[in-house]
């Protein structure tokens, strides 16, 4: 009697990189690749917890490294991905597109495995508890300043400064929870994220997620990173895009003077003039009622806390002053790592190259770490977005070695040099635009 032939599963479907690249969303169909598996995300993008745009930015591309970087429970996520699986890359196809550095990808993945074995992806809960306590103590100190010393000019200004510190530092802390870098489960990170950004700052978590994850997925990539959406309507950014804009004879602003008007419409205006109203439009337009409820608790709390001491006009003046000071702090810190760097269209480069060309560091010091919420380690944060911030300095030497081996520029500079580079880069790109506008 002949032996039975073992049951065979369905023959897997094989695809080439050309077939994947054609499904980049331009014709509505979207595919991406993770660990050589091909997934059809055309319908899933609307249900993606991280937002439709962040996953769509990798349509037609390999998304293995960003998938690993953004998810802390990859096993659970992979279960949900099974229904999206449509096949895999053909055996003769390389694991990555030709635009990507194969050796660099392999060595970075080995580095990540080393980092995980070292325990650098695990948070120290005491660090974040003390950080939250220092914010709460400063919040109380701001109110006590007015209660004890009255509402004359000096106590009012001191209270404004203390509340600005609270808002800035709470901004850095919500960033930690938003990146899932504090707790081992998404649930607790999301809950504390709502508390810090919603109740302590009066902003919606969903708005932050919508913008910030796109920034991390494709930093400084035009039309994919919302942090550079001020190009071209307010600023001409980067050498490539500025020349492109000049050649097209487009002039929405006098860009050759942008390094001057940056001081008027940049740091002082972003939060009090734009963000302050846009966040309410965002939650109402998208029906994010949970976020709106958290935001209302913030405004009710500060209204009941400060109106009895300052009256309505004094209270409104305090809110404006705090947002004004916070805005200056926020813009200088967040732009010092990115605006002076390479800004371009998405060239579909490997994860390390994508992040390193768009980010730079500011030298480590106790003040710089505190002042920037450890975002002076922007390179390490972008490579490992779920890493707790207190471990950035530990992984930095390993990242520097990887960059040196592959000839990738690893930039770190003093704080005020980083600030000055924002202005210098705006002046340079403005001049490049003008030259192209007049002569090309």
Task: Summarize the SSE layout with pairings.
Blueprint: E1 14-15, H1 17-21, E2 31-34, E3 37-40, H2 52-56, H3 64-70, H4 74-81, E4 85-89, H5 102-117, H6 125-149, H7 153-178, H8 186-200, H9 205-217, H10 239-247, H11 258-265, H12 270-285, H13 289-335, H14 351-356, E5 361-362, H15 366-372, H16 378-383, H17 392-405, E6 412-413, H18 415-439
Parallel strand pairs: 1-4, 5-6
Antiparallel strand pairs: 2-3, 3-4
Helix pairs in contact: 5-17, 6-7, 7-8, 7-13, 8-13, 10-18, 11-18, 12-13
Quick gist of this model?
The chain has 440 residues and is mostly helical.
Describe the structure.
By secondary structure, the protein is mainly alpha-helical. The chain has a domain at 14-98: Roll (Flavocytochrome B2, Chain A, domain 1), CATH 3.10.120. It contains 18 helices and six strands. It has helices at 17-21, 52-56, 64-70, 74-81, 102-117, 125-149, 153-178, 186-200, 205-217, 239-247, 258-265, 270-285, 289-335, 351-356, 366-372, 378-383, 392-405, 415-439; strands at residues 14-15, 31-34, 37-40, 85-89, 361-362, 412-413. Strands 1-4-3-2 form a four-stranded mixed sheet. It has a two-stranded parallel sheet with strand order 5-6. A hairpin with a 2-residue loop joins strand 2 and strand 3. Helix 7 runs antiparallel to helix 8, helix 7 (153-178) packs across helix 13 (289-335) and helix 8 (186-200) crosses helix 13 (289-335). It is globular and about 75 Å long. Residues 1-9 have low confidence and may be disordered.
């Amino acid at each position: 009697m002949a032996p039975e032939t073992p049951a065979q599963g369905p023959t897997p479907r094989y695809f080439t990189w050309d077939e994947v690249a054609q499904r980049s969303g331009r014709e509505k169909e979207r595919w991406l690749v993770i660990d050589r598996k091909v997934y059809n995300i055309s319908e899933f993008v609307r249900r993606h917890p991280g937002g439709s745009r962040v996953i769509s930015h990798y349509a037609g591309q390999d998304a293995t490294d960003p998938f690993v970087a953004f998810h802390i429970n990859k096993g659970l996520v992979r279960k949900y991905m099974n229904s999206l699986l449509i096949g895999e890359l053909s055996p003769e196809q390389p694991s990555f597109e030709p635009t990507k550095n194969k050796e660099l990808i392999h060595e970075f993945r080995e580095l990540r495995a080393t980092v995980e074995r070292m325990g650098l992806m695990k948070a120290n809960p005491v660090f974040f508890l003390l950080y939250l306590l220092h914010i709460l103590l400063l919040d109380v100190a701001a109110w006590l300043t007015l209660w004890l010393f009255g509402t004359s000019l000096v106590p009012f200004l001191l209270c404004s400064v203390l509340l600005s510190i609270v808002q800035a530092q709470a901004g850095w802390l919500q960033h930690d929870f938003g990146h899932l870098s504090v707790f081992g489960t998404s649930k607790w990170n999301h809950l504390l994220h709502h508390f810090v950004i919603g109740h302590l700052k009066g902003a919606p978590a969903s708005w932050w997620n919508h913008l910030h994850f796109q920034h991390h997925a494709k930093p400084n990539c035009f039309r994919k990173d919302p942090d550079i959406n001020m190009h071209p309507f307010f600023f001409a950014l980067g050498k490539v895009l500025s020349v492109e804009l000049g050649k097209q004879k487009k002039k929405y602003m006098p860009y050759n003077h942008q390094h001057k008007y940056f001081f008027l419409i940049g740091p002082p205006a972003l939060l009090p003039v734009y963000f302050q109203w846009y966040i309410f439009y965002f939650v109402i337009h998208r029906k994010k009622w949970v976020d709106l409820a958290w935001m209302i608790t913030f405004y009710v709390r500060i209204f009941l806390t400060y109106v009895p001491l300052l009256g309505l006009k004094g209270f409104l003046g305090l809110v404006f002053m705090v947002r004004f000071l916070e805005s200056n702090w926020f813009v200088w810190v967040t732009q010092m790592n990115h605006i002076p760097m390479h800004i371009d269209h998405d060239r579909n480069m490997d994860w390390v190259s994508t992040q390193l060309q768009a980010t730079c560091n500011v030298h480590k010091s106790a003040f710089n770490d505190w002042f920037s919420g450890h975002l002076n380690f922007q390179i390490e944060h972008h490579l490992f977005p779920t890493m707790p911030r207190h471990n950035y300095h530990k992984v930095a030497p390993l990242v520097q070695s990887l960059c040196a081996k592959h000839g990738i520029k690893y930039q770190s500079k003093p704080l005020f040099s980083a600030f000055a580079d924002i202005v210098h880069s705006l002046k340079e790109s403005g001049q490049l635009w003008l030259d192209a506008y007049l002569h090309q």
